Amino acid sequence: MPELPEVETIRRMLQPELQGRKIVGVRVLWERTLATPSPAEVTTGLPGQRIVTLGRRGKYLLIELTQDVLLIHLRMSGDLVLEPQHREPGKHHRFWLDLDDDRRLVFSDARKFGRVWVSAVPAEILCKLGPEPFDTDLTAEVLYNKLKRTRRQLKPLLLDQTFLAGLGNIYCDEALHLARLHPQMPANRLTLEQSECLLRAIHQVLQEGIRRNGASIDWVYRGGEFQNYFRAYQRTGHPCPVCGTIIERLVVGQRGTHICPNCQQISLTG
DNA sequence: CACGAGACCTGTTCGC
DNA sequence: TGCGAACAGGTCTCGT
Predict the structure, then answer these.
(1) Contact A150/A184 with Cβ under 8 angstroms?
(2) How many of the other CB atoms lie within 10 Å of CB of A144?
(3) How much is the pLDDT for A92?
(4) Nucleotides of B under 7 A from a protein CB
C-alpha cells in the first residue's frame, strides 16, 4: 500500500497529535509484526519514553523517542490510527502504544506484511536505502550516472529501494507515464535529457501525491484523493490523458504495470 | 549480476 | 448464488 506520499501524509497528520506524548504501555497482538527486538524487551523498554518527533525515510515512518526510534514499515495494507484506549481491539490490530492522553496509536494491518523495529541505532535498519527522491544531492546528472551503470529494466530498478527510496507501484507507473518512458527500457539507454525528465516526473508525481494526501484505494481509506488523478495506474481500458490511446496493462517484474502504448515506446527513444 | 518464482498474508473482485 | 481464481500500494530469499 503506502508509498512515500502516503507515509509522508500519515507523518504530517500524526506529528501534532503525538509530539510530546509519553508512552505508558505497549501491546503486541501479532508477534511477527515486531521485527526486533522481542515483545518482552519492547513492552518493558518503551513505557516512560516520550515521543520527540516523527520522521520519514523512504517508506519508513520514524517515531523518534527520548532514547530509541520506532521504525514502522506499512508494506501493503498497514495503517496507523489513533483511538481511545477503552475501545475493543479491532480485527486487524497488530501492535499499539498506549499514550498518556488516554489514546492509543494502533498499527493496523490486514495482510500482516508490515513490520515494526525498535532500535537506538536506526541507521542499521535504514543503511541499505538509496537516496531520497527530494535530496538536493540527487541531481539529474547523478541520476543519469546511476542509470548508466545498469542494464536493468527501468520499472524494477525504480522500485528497488536500494536504488531510490520511496517509489512503489502507483507512483512508478505515474512517473514513467509522465516522463514518456517505457517501463521495460534498459536503464543505461537513457540520455541525460531523459534522466532529467524522469527526475522531474518523479518529483512532480510525489509532490502531487503529497498535496492530495496520498492515494486511497481498495478498502484502505485514509482521506487521500490522489486516486482520482491517476494518469495510467489502474486505468486499463481508459484513454490516455495525453493522447487518448487506450491504456494497457502488462506485467513487468511480476508487478501489474500500466502504460500508454503510444506515449511510452522503447523504440521512440532508441 | 539480473531475473523469475515463491513465500509471507488476508480481503475483494472477477469469471464461470 | 456459489466457488475458485486472480489480484492487491511491498520486500525477502532462493535458484538459475
Answers:
(1) no
(2) 19
(3) 96
(4) 1-6, 8-12
User: In chain A, where does DSSP find H-type helix?
Assistant: 4-18, 39-45, 123-126, 140-148, 154-159, 169-178, 192-211
Q: Is the CB of A183 under 7 A from strand B?
A: no
The answer to whether A32 CB sits below 7 Å from nucleic acid chain B is yes
Nearest to residue A188, comparing CAs of A140, A160, A146?
A: A146
A131/A244 Cα distance (integer angstroms) = 35
- The catalytic residue positions of A are 2-3, 59, 255
Q: Nearest CA to the C1' of B1 belongs to which residue?
A: A150
**Lowest-confidence region among A28-32, A119-123, A204-208, A215-219:** A215-219
Integer angstrom CA distances of residue A257 from A155, A174, A175, A226: 9, 10, 12, 18
Q: Report which of residues A227 and A220 the model is more confident about.
A: A227
- State the nucleotide closest to A110 in CA–C1' terms: B10
- The letter for the amino acid at A39 is P
| Inter-residue contact A25 to A97 (CB < 8 Å) | yes
Q: Which nucleotides on chain C have any atom < 7 A from a protein Cβ?
A: 7-12
Whether A146 CB is under 7 Å from strand B: no
- Mean pLDDT value of segment A22-30: 98
What is the pLDDT, as a whole number, of residue A270? Answer: 44
What's the pLDDT score for residue A220?
61
Q: How far is the CA of A161 from the C1' of C14 (A)?
A: 20
User: pLDDT tens digits for A93-104?
Assistant: 999 999 999 999
Strand partners, A98: A25, A104
Give the number of other Cβ atoms within 10 Å of residue A228's Cβ: 9
